[in-house]
Design brief:
three-stranded antiparallel β-sheet; disordered N terminus; ADP-ribosylation fold; alpha+beta
Amino acid sequence: MSSPARSSHLPPKLRGMTVFPSATLLHVAERRHWDEARAAGGPYAMSTRGRTLADEGFVHCSSTEAQAATVLDRFYADVPRDDLVLLVIDRTALPAEVRYASVDGDLFPHVHGPIPLAAVIEVRPVPETR
């Protein structure tokens, strides 16, 4: 069973809440960046579309497919779905800290470090959102 997220890592209005993180995280990735990380032997260090971990300070993730669909609609609507993949990440295999941030009333996980290739347990097609 996952342990709850520490409330000190939540935005002020959400502190004191208990958040039980899922065992896996989801990350929308551009296929070419995922392929490049694999070819280089890892790790994966893209944060979001056109932004690296170094740019953002964390890797944007989702807790559910519904959250991933929201990300796809908002930030990747003009990208062909074949150019994207959904990385399924084993949260327990991450050496980096996972913090949660409130976005439009929903909590999204942020991984504060690169994603080791071994932490990616599945690569899926992205869900259709259009």
